[in-house]
Amino acid sequence: MDAAVGWLARPDLRFAAAYDADNTPVAYCLTRIEPTPGMASRALGVIFDAAADSHNYHGGVMRDLVADARKWLAAQQIDQLTALVPRLATADQAFWRGLGASDWTQWLWLKS
Question: Is the CATH code 3.40.630.30 the one for domain 2-98?
Answer without folding.
Answer: yes
